Amino acid sequence: MTLQNWILVFHVFGLVLWAGSLLALVRCMTWRVMLSDAMAAEIRSFEKKLMFGGAHVGMGITVLTGIWMLSQQEWGPLIPSVSGGGFHIKLTFVFLLIVVTFIAQMLVMSPLDGAGNTSKKQPKVLYLLTLLALFGALSSIYVLYPYLKGNTLSAPAETSNTAASLERIDG
């Protein structure tokens, strides 16, 4: 495997770690609301581990490898053209995922009070935003990109050699 393929593997690994940590974190927030204060403190420590050991590490890997791939122009089919509309849609959803990460961090780092400091609706909204951002980023590249791509694949330019070989084949 080439270096570009390894970078792409780490990019996908970072995205899975990032989104998976956020989805697990939101689930822990939902449990914390329903549990007693003693159990909520234990869940809170696990939430911090998920946030800083999973979501932030995954976000860092994803963003750094994404920037590296963007800086490499010889990648061809592995990275879409920056001029394509699908790529800009993907970046919008990645920005939404970054915003969701920092909102979740604010909820994790907020001090505990008697009520658990999180309503039942906040984790649900974060869960839906995480799924929307993940689905949007993936679908913009793999579903929308071929249709929104500005530079469509075209036939190779005809040269004198190809014209001569076509004449020989045709007779």
Please give the domain count: 1
Task: Determine the mean pLDDT.
Answer: 78
Regions with little confidence, pLDDT below 50 for 5+ residues: 151-158
Name the quaternary structure: single chain
The N- and C-terminal alpha carbons lie at a distance of 44 Å
What form results from the Cα inertia axes? Answer: elongated
| Rg from alpha-carbon coordinates | 23 Å
Write the layout of secondary structure elements.
Elements: H1 3-34, H2 37-71, H3 85-109, H4 121-148, H5 160-170
Helix pairs in contact: 1-2, 1-3, 1-4, 2-3, 3-4
Outline of the structure:
With 171 residues, the chain is mainly α. Helices cover 77% and strands 0% of the residues. It has one domain (3-72, 81-151).
3D structure, described in words:
The model is unreliable at 151-158 (pLDDT under 50). The protein is elongated and about 55 Å long. With 171 residues, it is mostly helical. It has one domain. Helix content is 77%, strand content 0%.
